[in-house]
Design brief:
This protein is mainly β. The protein has 1 helix and 7 strands.
């Protein structure tokens, strides 16, 4: 990835193309449904296993016991250490399901 600097010292990088992938993520205490943005040409698993501390989820809904929606937000960052399991919705055969 190249980095360019302007005369004021501000830097610019190339845009990384990502594909929003519907996903279900189970944390230690909640179920999260939303979109994980996976880099073009990479797998969902690659995005989950990155070395970054948090993973971004867009259009997120956080569910409690009984699948009750506790919170909704356009963006949530989940600490990767709290993820118990995760799966992309389309690979689970749930393409038509409402994530």
């Amino acid at each position: 990835m190249s980095i360019e600097y302007d005369e004021k010292g501000k830097y610019y990088t190339e845009v990384v193309a990502k594909q929003p992938t519907p996903a279900v993520i189970q944390t230690a205490t909640h179920l999260v449904r939303g979109f994980v943005h996976v880099r073009q040409g990479e797998r969902f698993k690659d995005e989950i296993e990155r070395d970054e501390r948090f993973i971004a989820i867009t259009q997120a809904t956080i569910h409690g016991a009984g699948d009750q929606i506790l919170f909704s937000a356009p963006f949530v960052a989940i600490q990767r250490a709290q993820i118990v399991w995760a799966m992309p919705v389309e690979e689970a055969g749930l393409e038509d399901a409402n994530i």
